[in-house]
From TrEMBL:
Signal peptide: none annotated. This is L1 transposable element RRM domain-containing protein. It comes from the Eukaryota. Residues 1-60 are annotated as: Disordered. It comes from Xenopus tropicalis (Western clawed frog). The keyword Coiled coil applies. Residues 83-145 form a coiled coil. Residues 29-46 have a biased composition (Low complexity). InterPro entries: Transposase_22 (IPR004244).
Length: 313
């Protein structure tokens, strides 16, 4: 805008001089066109006389200067209005930028506060996971301790227990394993099928759960069942197992394939609580808490120790 104002003065002076020159020139032209009284009239020669021309429509220098001045004034007005609009727009943009700066500053403060509060979250989350796992293990241990006097019977035909499962279980266990396998205080507290609802036809019989009063009687019953080996009732093969929680049962069932390989190799093994496998090989005990470790041990087992009477048969 300042440059435009500085260049406006020379243009106005030039326009003024041009206008004065045009006026002077027009006056001289008008004075020379009037005939003097002493001058002789021109010869009348109709053959060489040219027809008069009409110059009323031709623009004069004054008209040109006037048009130039009007254009200059119009451009000046237009530029001035546009510059004022730009000033207003720039002012609004500055206000918006200031607002954005303020919001950005507030946002940075909030983000910084969140980062400070969440800096220790990974460590706290790890601690919470550890505590949760500890609590879960303790709950599972308490559940298994409540089940330590239970006997899970598999293969017992449906409806064999009749309307009084406790009386049936007490009499049936004594007949199956012998009276000497239990203490004089042998009592069956509860007995029922698991799950409670009957299965569809053709399905294997549901597990029969027996809760004894004394866990020593449970241990004696399981030990006597292992000694007898094959147990039968009404033509069906019966198996007795300790009753564990679902978590422990899943862990122990993961050793099924490994146990089959150990039986084929003739190696003695024992499942320890909660889900640890003990293998006797050459008078030395090996303990494993995952079936993958057992398979790895079998792959690296010496060849001279792999031969066994059962494996050779």
């Amino acid at each position: 805008l300042s440059r435009f104002k500085n260049t406006q003065r020379p243009r106005s002076e030039a326009a003024t001089r041009l206008e004065q020159f045009a006026r002077k020139n027009s006056q001289e032209t008008a004075g020379s066109s009037t005939p003097s009284p002493s001058a002789s009239p021109p010869l009348s020669d109709t053959s060489t006389k040219e027809p008069p021309t009409d110059n009323s429509s031709a623009p004069t220098s004054v008209d040109l200067m006037s048009a130039i001045l009007q254009c200059q004034t119009s451009l000046t007005t237009t530029f001035t209005s546009k510059i004022e609009e730009l000033k207003i727009d720039l002012s609004l943009i500055k206000q918006d930028i200031q607002t954005i700066r303020e919001r950005t500053g507030a946002l940075e403060e909030r983000v910084g506060g969140v980062e400070d509060r969440t800096a220790n979250l990974p460590q706290e989350l790890t601690q919470i996971k550890t505590q949760l796992q500890t609590v879960t293990d303790r709950m599972d241990d308490l559940e298994n301790r409540q089940r330590r006097s239970n006997v899970r019977v598999l293969g017992l035909p449906e409806r064999s227990e009749g309307a009084h499962p406790e009386t049936f279980a007490e009499t049936w266990l004594k007949e199956l394993l012998g009276q000497d396998a239990f203490s004089p205080q042998f009592v069956v507290e509860r007995a029922h099928r698991v799950p409670l609802r009957p299965l569809p036809p053709g399905a294997p019989p549901r597990a029969f759960l027996i809760k004894l009063l004394n866990y020593r009687d449970r241990d004696s019953a399981l030990r006597e069942a292992r000694k007898k080996g094959d147990l039968q009732y009404a033509g069906a093969r019966i198996s007795l197992y300790p009753d564990y929680s679902s978590t422990v049962q899943k862990k122990r069932s993961s050793y099924t394939g490994v146990k089959r390989k150990l039986r084929d190799l003739g190696l003695e093994y024992t499942m320890l609580y909660p889900a640890k496998l003990k293998i006797m090989d050459g008078g030395k005990a090996h303990f494993f808490d995952r079936p993958e470790l057992v398979l790895e041990w079998l792959e690296h087992r010496p060849d001279n120790a792999r031969g066994s009477p059962r494996a050779q048969r």
